[in-house]
Amino acid sequence: MSQSIVNILDIVDTLLNIPRIGWLQRGVPRAVAESVGEHTLLVSYVALIMCSEVRRSGVDVDVGKCLAMALLHDAHEALIGNVGNGVRSMVTNWRDIEARVFEGLGLGEELSRYFREYRFELSVEGKLVNIADKLATYMRACKYARAGYSTEELINNYKELITRLINELPSSIKESISKVVTLAHSWCVTSR
Length: 192
Prior knowledge:
Elements: H1 4-16, H2 21-25, H3 36-56, H4 63-72, H5 77-80, H6 85-90, H7 94-103, H8 109-119, H9 124-146, H10 152-167, H11 171-191
Helix pairs in contact: 3-4, 3-9, 3-11, 4-8, 4-9, 7-8, 8-9, 9-10, 9-11, 10-11
C-alpha cells in the first residue's frame, strides 16, 4: 500500500490526459473535450452533494466512502484508456475486467473493495456514486449542447438512465436524490 502514494501521481497525470471518447465521437475537439480526470473531479463533487443530501435527510450514508468511490470510479482507465459504451456493451463481463484492471493499480485491498462496491452497486454509496457518474455526464452533455456540439442523444439517454436508477433506490433516498437531479435538469433545460 505504501507504493500507492507514488502510483497515484501516475494515475492522476494519465487520467488528466485521456479525453473521454464519447465527446470526441460527438465532434467535441480534443482540446475542449473533458478528460477522464476532469470528469472524476466533477463526479466527486456531485457525489459529495448527493450523499450529503441523503445523510441530511436522516439516512445513514457514509459520505467519505461516497467521495472515495467517486475519486476511484474511473482510475482503472489510467491503464486501459476510456473505452466507449459501444465496445463495453460487446463484452459480457466488462465490469469484472474493470475490477481486475483496478486491482492492477496497486492501491490496496480496501480501495479495490470500494471500487467493486461502486462498480457492482453493492451498497447504497455505490448506487449513489453510479448516479453521480451519470448525472455528471448528463450535465457535461448539456454544457456541450449549449456550445453547439451534438449531444442531444446523450442528454436524452442519460436522463432516462438516471430516472431508472433513481427508481431502483430505496424510497427513503429517492426524494433527496430526485431534488438534486431536478435542479440539474432545470439547469440543463435553461442552459441550452
